[in-house]
Amino acid sequence: MYTVIGATKSRAFRVMWMLEELGQAYEHIPAAARSDEARRYNPSGKIPALKDGDEVLTDSVAIMTYLADKHGKLTAPAGTPARARQDALTFWLIDEFDAVLWAAAKHSFVFPEEQRVPQVKDSLKAEFKRAAAILSERLDGPFLMGDEITLPDLLALHCINWSIGANFPRVDDRLGQWARKMRERPAYIAAQSRDAAA
Predict the structure, then answer these.
(1) Which domains does the chain show, CATH number per domain?
(2) C-alpha span between 56 and 89 (Å, rounded)
(3) Helix, strand or coil for residue 80?
């Protein structure tokens, strides 16, 4: 059985949702970032971490890629053009969505107060809005890669949810409708229910 280490309202949710989509059982340790519990699994204290037997893996996207490859679901096969296109979108989402949101978080509550530059958040919000418009434009089908849900769908929705909590601009109606449908997935709801249980 897998063990996911990290608070539900963090990037750990991506891993939990993926495990639910994969139909894999897991234990959840809702450790906060930089807590003693988190440092037991990752010396930096960053979350999430995934325990698979004696192995401990870190970084949400690396964990998701590992799980998708291991179980042969939510991903195109490695070594195919479809996988290269999927990876390109995954890396784009990390650069254009995740990194922008993380930069805003650092200037909101992560950095010591004297190192924060609140004015930078306006440009980050504009950058996110531009990227969200691009993502909406490329949406062609029920999922980002076409007819089947893949890792980028989970990553993108998590970032859109994060953007709402961070008071970033709302995504357009097309992307918003896609996001609503994703939130209705039983696996998403099951992963979210872990928060109430914790």
Answers:
(1) 2-74+187-197 (3.40.30.10), 81-185 (1.20.1050.10)
(2) 26
(3) coil
Question: Which pTM was predicted?
Answer: 0.95
In this predicted model, what pLDDT tens digit does every residue of 99-148 receive, in sequence order?
Answer: 999 999 999 988 999 999 999 999 999 999 999 999 999 998 999 999 99
Residue pair 82/76 in contact by the 8 Å Cβ criterion: yes
Cis peptide before 142 (omega within 30 of 0): no
Residue type, position 140, single letter: D
- In eight-state DSSP terms, residue 59 is S
The torsion of the CA quartet 116, 119, 123, 126, rounded to 10 degrees, works out to 110
Please name the helix (run of DSSP H) or strand (run of DSSP E) that holds residue 181, with its range, or none: helix 173-183
Taking residues 82-100, what's their average pLDDT? 98
The residue among 169, 175, 183, 179 whose CA lies nearest residue 138 is: 175
Return d(Cα 2, Cα 10) in angstroms, integer.
Answer: 18
Q: Which residues of 103-119 are buried (b: 16+ CB within 10 A; e: fewer)?
A: bbbebeeeeeeeeeeee
What is d(CA 108, CA 188) in angstroms, rounded to the nearest whole number?
A: 28
